[in-house]
Design goal:
The protein has 350 residues and is mainly α. Helices cover 87% and strands 0% of the residues. It has 13 helices and no strands. The two termini are 34 Å apart.
Length: 350
């Protein structure tokens, strides 16, 4: 009886800890999300900054150079987005002309096959537009609030990254002291493995975008779309921006297919290619490739993506993957968490 009581006590204790952690993550997301982004950027830049410091760069200058490189990559991504938007704007007049008969055809098909009159369709469309514009103050206020929140987050991320890099000795000492004297060497080993793990995570992400770009290009080439390789890889790169990136980057090849081809099946084919590749990326390529780099099981990776989306939204879907990799490292070095390690590790990782 005492054995079962001990087991129940452990289950209750770990369940309570899990609930407290989830509440802490959800309640503190305004600070924790930019902090985690900053931490992972600091982990990636640490080898580069350390190399510069060994070559007699001041620590502040080395950190500034690393953050400048990250900012340049982000600006390059925005420039690519702007180029695609400009190209889409140039094609928009021809696209409107091309769409007009198609829209009429769709309305007639709905009227004939589903008994939805054209007047009812127009009424529904106007009602939908009216609902969007009924309360412009609330819409504008919500947009401004989200914009300011995003700008504030973007400001905090490099600040946190710089602070983590500049004060890394203090943070490392804090972790060692918090772990206790008997676990000091274990804490050092976990921190070293964490840096290596996140490097592998970035490497895995690069492989994912390369594979997605190749698959996109093959699909567009099969459809005979102009600039298929360019569109394929641009679309893969733009998936760095979850949801919005793939939507905006897909508009240009879809519009090109619509304008340059005589059949509506070509733009539908482009949509089908991107949808299929995105399905493979989300459910096969990303979990297998990234999980393989992190030595985390596909099951744990999928759980991390879903849980991250529930707790932190899109940022959680991105951040919970490396966090799971770090948790796996901790369970590798903690005997008490061996049961959890069985769920996190890959089968080949024994």
């Amino acid at each position: 009886m005492g054995y079962y009581n001990d087991r129940l006590d452990k289950i209750f204790k770990y369940s309570f800890i899990a609930v407290v952690c989830i509440f802490f993550l959800y309640a503190g997301q305004a600070v924790l999300i930019p902090m985690c982004y900053g931490l992972f950027i600091a982990i990636v830049l640490y080898p580069f900054c350390r190399w510069l410091e060994k070559h007699h760069w001041p620590r502040s200058a080395a950190i500034g150079a690393g953050l400048f490189f990250v900012a340049a990559l982000f600006i390059l991504l925005l420039i690519i987005l702007e180029l695609q938007l400009n190209a889409f704007r140039q094609d928009l007049p021809d696209l409107k002309v091309k769409m007009a008969p198609s829209v009429i055809g769709v309305q007639q098909w709905l009227s004939t096959n589903l008994s939805i009159s054209i007047a009812s369709q127009d009424e529904w469309w106007h009602a939908s537009l009216k609902r969007l514009t009924d309360n412009p103050e609330a819409l504008l206020s919500g947009t401004l609030n989200k914009t300011f929140a995003a700008i504030f987050t973007l400001f905090l991320i490099p600040v946190f990254a710089a602070l983590f890099l500049y004060n890394r000795s203090d943070f490392a000492l804090f972790v060692e002291k918090a772990a206790g004297a008997q676990n000091s060497s274990k804490a050092k080993r976990i921190m070293q493995q964490t840096i290596l793990t996140y490097y592998h995570f970035i490497k895995g992400m690069a492989m994912v975008y390369l594979i997605v770009g190749i698959l996109n290009s093959i699909g567009l080439l099969a459809l005979g779309i102009r600039h298929a390789i360019l569109f394929g890889f641009l679309t893969a790169i733009m998936t760095l921006i979850p949801y919005i990136g793939i939507f905006i980057s897909a508009l240009l090849p879809i519009s090109v297919a619509w304008i340059t081809k005589d059949s509506v099946w070509y733009p539908l084919g482009v949509i089908a290619v991107f949808t299929f590749v995105q399905y493979l990326e989300a459910n096969v390529i990303f979990p297998r490739v990234v999980a393989a780099q992190l030595n985390v099981s596909t099951w744990a990776t999928l759980v991390a993506i879903v849980a991250g989306g529930i707790v932190w939204g899109v940022s959680g879907m991105i951040l919970f993957i490396p966090l799971t990799g770090i948790l796996k490292i901790i369970t590798d070095n903690t005997e008490e968490w061996e049961a959890l390690n069985i769920l996190l590790r890959r089968k080949s990782d024994k």
